[in-house]
Design a protein that fits this description.
single chain, 13 helices, 23% helix
Length: 646
């Protein structure tokens, strides 16, 4: 599905509306989407390996060739009245036009166009690259799209991936040189509107699998290349004799020509520095309006060192990145968020519109350095409340947003204990907070309790730069887990969070979808669904949990029993706000039962296989034997048959 900031993009702007810096920033921020768009438009006859490389090549060649004089180098162009970002629209138009040029048939008596030739760069030798395999639905959609013309595929991709209406799709196609956009739109109606499948990994040229090429043929060709290279060296030595050799003329360029955009990105003087009061008047409340803070913001040598390591980290640099986060150099001058001393380290934080980047080195100048990347595209106020600025001896320090006016620490395994005040420096750096779930026994879990103009929030550290937001409630309208009932529920769930540590998690929602009276006077049990959403959209984890009543009150709540687990599943989320799960349970009297529960959308449940039974409504309890195997299904109110989460 299209992201919120892209649904209203319209036709591409001319090169006069944007400069190279703005176009470069738009290209870096939305690079995966632009490459996916090119991949969908390119003809399948190229083969998956060449489609992948060509899509990357077209996206990287989408920048304007010149820079408009007098253009601002650090501030983005203002949006037009229709909500369009001129820089992104221009780059997207260039990608669409280039991809359609590849898809356009070539006349037999005409020279091939540049884009119709195999890409010079990027190039991978000895490997075949192709996206991950999809399911039957993705394969069927790919086959239907391959039967369409290039303009029709472009129309389908612009509708589904970019969320454009037909009027704006027609404008993009016209600007790309399509002679009959209306026919392309009509033919794009052929495949059923399965736009959600376009976000699948099967159409993602940035998430790839690799296989070797023909090894025997490569070995034979390698021997031929070595022989040819030896011949070239001999000829070159003969031609390079005095007065008869090949010499560079006075117009030859030096061996290394600097790239202006790259040089600007490595210049500390070009860093974007936001004033402390800018967020008060800004329409946006995210990392882009964080003021620059820290006691080393004027240390030019430190900033130059941090930028150089970011551009080309050496062997002694420890580099980490959350899944789905590119770890490459900045395309332009980034924004400086923080530069200062944190415990025994000197830390610099950057933001480039797509990522928050943390550089750290020892305060005494010894040892190596660390470079961490975290994806934060599409961050809102809640997701921009805090960033991890330092970790020492199991403790975590956070840098909080300027709009945060209260901070505390809450142990989620003591839901009634309340939060403890957390002191912060004038720059917004917190005192050390013991890391959550440090002990293997999970006897405590410290969460960061923040309060800003929008209310109270709970954040937890999952081993990454950005803490994850803790939510509660149904998927159609989750809320921050700050109420007494929400905290009591999270006390049973929080010790399951290590399963999503270092997965690039943005938020975790825990939702009690059913409550069931157990047979044989076993008390009332709760059924819970926990869903972890990632910054990249894919790779989320869904857990179905069973919470049986426990007699008496222990010192800490017992964690729920995980009865089902699924990755990359829409269940328990906005796209599919329902879930069905079951468990084999033993009563105090020794009788075994198959228990099952579904959310309110289920009209009936049934179990087959080793245990047979059915029930009207979203709850089921059927006597069974120990170790029985059962297959659980349910029917929705409209009669649709749905299987259990697995």
């Amino acid at each position: 599905m299209p992201s919120k900031d892209l649904t209203r993009r319209s036709a591409p702007d001319s090169a006069a509306d944007v400069d190279a810096g703005q176009a470069g920033a738009a290209l870096v921020e939305h690079y995966p989407r632009l490459v996916r768009l090119a991949y969908l438009i390119l003809p399948p006859s190229l083969g998956r390996n060449r489609r992948v490389l060509t899509a990357h090549s077209l996206a990287q060649r989408a920048l304007p060739r010149g820079r408009r004089s007098g253009a601002a180098e650090s501030l983005p162009s203002p949006r037009r009245a229709d909500g369009c970002d001129p820089a992104y629209a221009y780059v997207r138009g260039r990608v669409v036009a280039a991809a359609l040029e590849v898809a356009r048939p070539r006349r037999w008596n005409a020279w091939p166009r540049r884009s119709q030739l195999p890409p010079l760069l990027p190039q991978v030798w000895g490997l075949r690259l192709f996206p991950r395999s999809g399911g039957a639905d993705e394969l069927a959609l790919d086959q239907r799209l391959s039967a369409l013309s290039g303009p029709a595929r472009a129309a389908y991709a612009l509708r589904g991936l970019e969320g454009l209406d037909d009027t704006r799709v027609r404008r993009v196609l016209e600007a790309a040189g399509v002679a009959d956009p209306r026919t392309a739109l009509d033919r794009a109606d052929g495949p059923s509107a399965q736009y959600g499948l376009l976000a699948s990994a099967a159409f993602d040229p940035c998430s790839l699998q690799a296989r070797p090429t023909d090894l025997l043929r490569r070995r034979r060709r390698g021997r031929g290349v070595l022989a040819a290279a030896a011949a070239v060296l001999v000829c070159g030595a003969l031609l390079a004799l005095p007065d008869g050799g090949l010499r560079s003329g006075p117009a030859a360029a030096p061996a290394h020509t600097g790239n202006p955009v790259s040089e600007q990105a490595l210049n500390p003087a070009k860093l974007t520095r936001v004033a402390g009061s800018a967020w008060h008047a800004s329409a946006r409340t995210d990392f882009s309006v964080w003021p620059v803070r820290g006691d080393r913001t004027g240390d030019t040598a430190l900033l130059r060192r941090a930028l150089a390591v970011w551009a080309l980290p050496g062997d002694s640099v420890q580099v980490s990145a959350t899944p789905g986060t590119p770890a490459g150099p900045p395309m332009g001058a980034p924004q400086l968020l923080y530069a200062g001393t944190v415990d025994d380290a000197v830390v610099v934080l950057f933001y480039d519109g797509l990522r928050v980047v943390r550089y750290a080195e020892a305060k005494d100048g010894g040892g190596g350095a660390a470079l961490d990347f975290a994806r934060v595209d599409g961050a809102d106020e809640a997701a921009s409340d805090a960033v991890v600025v330092g970790r020492t001896d199991g403790n975590v320090r956070y840098l909080t947003a300027p709009w945060v006016h209260g901070a505390g620490v809450r142990d989620l395994l003591a839901p009634t204990a309340g939060s403890r005040p957390l002191a912060r420096s004038a720059d917004g750096v917190t005192d050390p907070v013991p890391g959550p779930g440090v002990s293997r026994a999970c006897t405590s879990w410290n969460a960061l309790a923040l309060r800003d103009g929008s209310g109270a929030r709970l954040l937890t550290d999952l081993g990454e730069l950005t803490p994850a937001r803790l939510l509660a409630g149904p998927p159609t309208g989750p809320h921050d887990a700050t109420g007494a009932a929400d905290l009591a529920g999270w006390a049973h769930t929080v010790c399951l969070l290590p399963a999503v540590r270092s997965h690039g998690v943005r938020a975790v929602n825990s939702w009690q979808f059913a409550s069931q009276q157990l047979p044989a006077e076993g008390g009332r049990a709760a059924w819970v669904c926990t869903r972890a959403e990632t910054w990249r959209g894919a790779g989320g984890l869904v857990l179905a949990q069973f919470r049986a009543p426990v007699p008496g009150d222990g010192p800490r709540p017992d964690p729920d029993t995980v009865v089902a687990r699924a990755e990359n599943s829409p269940a328990c989320g906005k796209r599919q706000p329902r879930v069905l799960a079951g468990v084999l349970w033993k009563s105090r009297g020794g009788q075994w039962y198959v228990l099952a529960a579904g959310s309110t959308q289920f009209a009936s449940l049934a179990t087959t296989g080793g245990v047979t039974g059915s029930a009207t409504g979203p709850l089921l309890a059927v006597p069974a034997k120990q170790g029985a195997k059962a297959r659980l299904t349910g029917r929705l109110g409209d009669g649709t048959r749905v299987g259990a989460l697995r």
